[in-house]
Structure formats: C-alpha cells, structure tokens
Predict the 3D structure of the following.
Amino acid sequence: MEEKKINEKESLELISQMIQSTKEYMEIGSGNHFIYWGYFTAALSIVIYSVFQFTEWKSCGLLWLLMFVFWIFMEILNHRKHPTVMTYINKVIDHVWYAMGYMFIVTFAVILCISFIYGRYNALDLMMPLSAIYVGIGVTITGIIIQNKWIAYLPFVGIGLGLYMLTAIYLNIFPTISWHLIFGLSFIIMMVIPGHILKRKEKKAC
C-alpha cells in the first residue's frame, strides 16, 4: 500500500516536470518562438507597406519570401538552444510546427506552379490569408497541448482575419496594400501577445 502512494507521487512529479520542461522549451534566449516570429512578421509587414508607399513597387509582396530566410535562422537557433531533457510533449510540439512548415512550403509551391501555368501571379495573394490560418491553427494546437487558454484561443482572431481576406479574394475583392498590415496585426494578436503572457507566467513560476 505504501508503494502505491509513492508511485502516485512520483507520477505527479514526473507530469509536473514534463509540463515545466515543455514551457522552458518554448523559450529561446530572452524570448520565445512566438515573440520572435510575431515581431518579425509585424515588422516585415510595415517594411513592405512602407516600400510600396515610397516606391509604388507593385511586387513588394515578394519581400515576404524573407520569412523562409528567417525560418532557417530560427531552426539554427532552435537546435543550439535545445533543452537537456527532451520530453514526449516537446516532440509533439516540434512535429506540429514541422507539419505547419511543410504546409507553408507545399502551399507556396502549388500556388507558384499554378501561377506560372496560367500566367496569373495574383494567385500569390492567397499566401497571406492561408498563412494566417495555418499559423493560427499551429498556435492553438500548441496552447491546447501546454494547457494555456490564452495561447489556445487568441489565435482565433488571426484565423478570422485570414478567413476575411480569403473570402474577399473569393468574392473578387481586390487586395489592397493595407492587407499586409492586417496580416502583421494578426501575428501580433496570435503570437506576440500569447508569447508575452507565457513569459510572464514563466517568471512568476521561477
């Protein structure tokens, strides 16, 4: 009977350590994945908007390709900052975001091929709303896994903005340059805010 009580206590401690390790894994240096990605995307959206305003370069949206460069940078940084203990939950979160990353690549490749075939490069406008939806789903799943309601529910705002843009395109409403700012705003809401909330809880836990 005594052995059963000890096992239960050890099980609770193990679960607690796994959750704590997972939350620590979310951090990179003085920030975390969400904060880095959110601020970078928001800043890039402002840069693209500003470039268009000053130069009227119609293909300024191509600057979004810098997201792939930033992704590579984050992957390198992520490998250097791996925790000493890699839990099953850590691996699940990793695989969720790897799946989302591959969805980005496949979506971009398919849209690019169709654009070349039909000579209609405005199809690339679909990348913004689809990206907002993909990221929103990824953040929501992450929030559910680590049992954080803010991270789980705030992304629905970004998903809603993505669906708004996607519906507008379907209704032949021509995208405007302000859409880039809307896209950046969606990342502030579904990544930056949850990221700071997570950091604040981590500081209190310490």
